Amino acid sequence: MKIGIIGAGLSGIIAARELVRQGHVVELIEKSRSVGGRLATRRIGDGRADHGAVYFTVRGEELEREVQSWMNANWVRVWYADPYPRYVTIDGMNALAKRLAEDLTVQLNERVENVQVEEDGTVTVKTDVTTRSYDRLVMTAPLPQSFDLLGDLAVDVEPALRRLIYSPTFVGLFECAGDVQIGADGILDQELVPGVLKIVDNRQKGISETSLISVYMEEAWSEDWYERPEEETLAEVERLFREEVGVLDIPSRQLKRWRYAQAKDVWHEPFYQVSHHPIYLAGDVFLEADDPSGRTRFESAYLSGLRVAETIEKNMDR
Length: 318
Ligand SMILES: Cc1cc2nc3c(=O)[nH]c(=O)nc-3n(C[C@H](O)[C@H](O)[C@H](O)COP(=O)(O)OP(=O)(O)OC[C@H]3O[C@@H](n4cnc5c(N)ncnc54)[C@H](O)[C@@H]3O)c2cc1C
Known about the structure:
Radius of gyration: 20 Å
Order of helices and strands: EHEEEHEEHEEEEEHHEEEEHHEEEH
Distance between the termini: 12 Å
Strand order of the largest sheet: 7-2-1-11-18-17
Helix content: 25-40%
Bound molecules: flavin-adenine dinucleotide
Structural class: alpha+beta
Number of domains: 2
Number of helices: 8
CATH class of the largest domain: Alpha Beta
CATH architecture of the largest domain: 3-Layer(bba) Sandwich
CATH topology of the largest domain: FAD/NAD(P)-binding domain
């Protein structure tokens, strides 16, 4: 069976690994030049800064077992554990995605433009590079992007799913000179100046040689500032950062803008089949029915990828 997966973020990679394990021919199509999606790390000078997921937490047994094997391989470690473990990748979140995708077939720098179903049931995926055909297709982009690609194929999708909206997030990345200390563990996330959600020192976090600080802005703040010029937004993030931590020497700064950082609501099934078509929507917004946290996160992306792959395998002859 030939299976296509749109998006090489965590859910796409996990689905691909499971389907390859079952013996299928699997191809990931990713518009960016690297895998990882929202597991994102930027190199700045001699340092590294995460600017997507900050850390991940584990509630279920399946991810727990997987994390044990990642810890044994020295890929991840506990950053701090108050009151429960926060896991990080030793060299930045993106490196975990790269390691997990190492043996997979990934078409990078290729943007899917639309998806069609042929009369014989084959799924045709038109990209900005070529046209590809699959027996099954998994789509893991944020939902508004997946629905754009599906066009009329999505007319019968439940309206509540089509209505899910996402909020943006700005992240400021600041290279700091001198001996910077951000709290005891390298993170501040309580009672910060309005607008600022988290301040993370990537050196204290253990992924950077240099003091690179990631400043995560709140959802409402990011919405208010979304259409403003980038320089103005970055200057305001820096002003609020300085207001929180005091005097700093900042030789360089950058801004990351996530259009679809996280969904405002979730879907209580781990994936969704588009009508009777061999097309499945997956990703962090799809939670297990009994998910204990009700939040989109690393673990929900992981489980969504796993469940959609298990179901495709189970229903192979249909
Ligand atoms: C700023 C920020 C902070 C976060 N902090 C945390 C945290 O601390 N803890 C936590 O657990 N989670 C956190 N998250 C959430 C976590 O990163 C996500 O839940 C998870 O990485 C989502 O994985 P995914 O595979 O569902 O989606 P994605 O990672 O978004 O993957 C989708 C992929 O599809 C690709 N794509 C989209 N459209 C197309 C197209 N047309 N053609 C080809 N490819 C396409 C994208 O480039 C992307 O690589 C954070 C997210 C952000 C943005």
